[in-house]
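Let us practice reading a record.
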Amino acid sequence: MVSSPDKAVARARAGIGLGARVALAGGVLLLEKTFLNLFVDFDSAQAAQGLGAVVRIAQHAGFRFLVSFVIALAVFGYLRGGPRLQEADSAARAQPILRPRWLLAHLLLFLPLIPLSSSLYGHTVLLPFGVTVLLWLLLATLAVAALLACVAPWSLWRSAARALGRLWWYATVAAAGAALAMGGSQRLWDLMAGVTFNAVYPLLSRLIPHLQVDPENRVIDTGRFAVAIDPVCSGLEGMGLMLAFCSVWLLLFRREYILPRSLLLIPAGVLLSFVLNIVRIAALVLIGDAGYAGVAVYGFHSQAGWIAFNAAAVGIAFVSLRSSWFNRTAGEELRVPAAENPTALYLAPYMALLLAGMVSHAASAGFERLYWLRLVAVGLALAYSLRRLRNLDWRCSWRAAVAGLAVFALWIASARVLAPPTPIPAPLLGLALLPRLAWLAAHGLTSILAIPIAEELAFRGYLMRRITSPEFEELSPHAVREPAVIISAAVFGLCQGAFWLPGTIAGVVFGLLYRHTARLGESVAAHAVLNGLIAAAVLLGGQWQLW
């Protein structure tokens, strides 16, 4: 009989399957596309005429189609792949993770794309525009082919392609429909903006008697604060997110839900998203009318949509899982006790950090006076989690300081390109001495203590090991494979905004440090050193763009 730790290690040593290899290649391509975007002059591209305009439009449509196609093919393959695809997946686990010579070929093909991307719409013209486009497409196609050969032999890809059979056609039709829907949905924005205006105005007129409106331009004016409901405020984006969430949720839990009645959750979620958007706009007007125009425009306007979506998604999931009309397992014990749910323990501090950040930003007028909420939220979540996570090794050594210092040097070098210097925020200077010192202390403690612990628990303690094995808590960090380190680092980097590239490299460094030492305390300490040095650069060197 094999114990759970032995199963986790055996599964980790068995290699990675076909799906993980596709995800690895997709993550690399996403990072490379984001990197190439840095060299494209988007203003010139937007103003291009003739062939340049055709290429721009084709690129947008083609990217939408490719993303939709890959997602559709992955979902169809997962649901209807059959034994032949399972055999290909088993064969993939016996292959090495990377093939170095093909990785070198991919890099050699990718590097020329940098000057070609810069010359597409830039001022530096290397070749005629048509020749540049054709050469770019050729090199990009060969680079993708080399990357696929890097993560798996071509014989394996051919076997998987044959195993998918007719699913290629189904995925093509689904991707074409999704791409056309994404393009066509933009035509609905004006219509939905009018519907939203007609829903918000009656709601506010009951609360503000002297409300003035301009139906033609969809302007609502209270006399002290005015809002124009643009097409982007129509709620279609949130409704699309809710449509995707409900569809994926039902797909993941298809065995628990009762069909076809559970499909009603999709229109219910979309309708809930639309209603919450109306409430959001009404609340925006009321906040501005109350004299907090800055909070309404800079904070609430940008964050309330995400808060509403998260609340709606959690509400749909919570209610449907506990409704016997929707879910056949509603009468059973659905929720694992907190002491036996390691995923919740590892992710709770990071979720608390994100939620507190949303609330703090929503209540700000461009400057987050409530930044300290992050420190309080993470502290409460850690009080809940750390009692169970005492089995983690929290020790650290000199390696953490060296790793943190090395990543800091990269971070500062990247900041010269990614973030132009900014002065100290004027609202912070306007605070009295004690409130200013309190804000700086809260920001520093959050950066040096709360964020490293929360993010390392989530990205290294959980995600990196979970990619390797479902029994992640029983898995030794030494058994984590390189793709798991890279994928978790890429996700971590994308969460760093403009600093995605140094963030990804930092994630790789922290992940390798944790894997080598098996001490989460090492990656936490390295992360804390990095953030501490960044705080010093801000406070002593005036590099406020880093905060």
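A brief commentary: The first strand starts at residue 212 and ends at 214.
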